[in-house]
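Example record used in the benchmark description.
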Amino acid sequence: MGRILKFAGIAVAALAAVLIAAAILFVLLFDANDFREEIEAGVEQATGRQLMIEGDIDLSILPWFAIGMQRVELGNAPGFGDEPFASFDSVRFSVRVLPLLLGREIAVGTAAIDSLRVNLAVDENGRTNWEDLTATAGPVETAPQQEAGSTAALDVASVEITDAAITYTDAQAGSRYSITDLDLRSGRVVFGEPVALSGGLSFGLEPQGIRGIVELDLSVDFDPDAGIEIGDLTLRLDDSTFTGRLSLPFDPERRIEAELVGDRIDITRYMTPASEVEETGEAMDDPVELPVELIRQLDVRASFTLAKALFGRLEFDNIEVVADVADDRLRIHPIAADFYDGGYRGDISIDASGDVPALSVDESISGVSLTPLAQALFGRDNVTGRIDGNFNLAGRGEDVDAIRRDLDGSMRFELSDGAWQGTDIWHEIRSARALFRGEPAPAARTPARTEFTSLRAGGIVKDGVMTGDDLFAELPYMQITGEGSVDFVEATIDYSLRGRVLERPEFIDATGDELDEYTEAVVPFRIDGPLAAPGVSLDFDALVRERAERELDRARDRLIDELLGGGEGEPDADGEQDPEDAARDLLKDLLRR
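Model output (structure tokens):
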């Protein structure tokens, strides 16, 4: 027995010596660079693309089977210029030989690629520079399943991508998207165990002029049967930091789920600059389309919370958004945020199940301070107070402009305890009286302002236009009612108002005769112009008609009194009116009608 073991040991040692000698001879005598032309020709025959290997090809056998290549380029498709389709400065890949030969483990060292460049393009006719590669690849054959327990385990030390760049240019759309400075490094990759991944990249979107920097730290758990789970996610986008998780199941019956929590983000920096919109007009001409195709393809539930967000000049706090996409429908609910001492609550839905998508919104704001809101929306600080409102609207269309023209529903709002700076309605009333009387205009109060206790309005929306007849405003010296319309398609307002001065205004800046005359009359106003900067003024045409009608009424009363004689009959001591006086009063009333 001992002699057998001795001979076996000698045989193994001899075999090992032979293998080592063979490996040494292979390294000394074999040069992979001798096959450079054959490799380039084989790739060109298979793909129709020219492959250029400018650097060395390194190959080793023991203890690792390792291959390395430097400065490699794959040519572009015909008609897409001289820029290579793909290139890299170096690539390195190694596998341990003995575990691979024994079939128990695929042990890979660090798989690395440096300075990868990929240029994807779509020409004016919609042809891509990669479709010929997918066509020549042919159908993928499914490998026969191995018996349970026969699959070799995969163990990769790490994967490294350094200084990579990917560009996508669409000549039809006139757009270009790019990822540059891409660096990614993984931890150990073993099936059934989470893999740590970290790195960063820069991105750019043209012609939007959007650019940013992203840093990533996360853990990826890959299950070939279940799907991909991304946990311990930390994403840094420029000055913003987000944490969360993402679940991507392979089973189409299961939903994609995502949770993300962020500190703050300035959305404005990822929007087309206003100066470019004004100069080119492109963003204004192109309608914003609803993401219909995306909604029809997804089954997702995602929650998103954010401490602070800037959108243009608007600033929001404590944002909460939950989006649910299923059965060709998107619903964003709840959606909530605090802003300018008040709050917003909403429920937004897009139904993409029909030929024409439908949008519906049920939104409300409460206790929002008007001064910072007007400053943020219109760049004006001429209004104070608070606003409450609710909007229940729905419309159909392929894009936002079409939906705006189709909007139906209702809306109401109320302003309270504020003032409109720059307009003094009381001074306008006194000036109008002086104009009719031919008197000098009264001195204006400074600063000009109109205070209001409350202003309520609302109405029915049809085809993008709201009409209402229940506007009611309370001022310290006047009550105002009115009716009119707001055109959301043209962004204009047109309201006719009627004001009646109170008998005892809270302040008195007029003589007794003036007050008597004001309390008798109904003062007409108009609010019209663009929604961003509406004008408030007296309606002089209506004022003239009102004055003329009042004078005609007085002249008619005087004529009736002269024709019938005497004033209205007085009751006697017993409370009874003389029959003759009663008949005369009745006749006067009939003539006045």
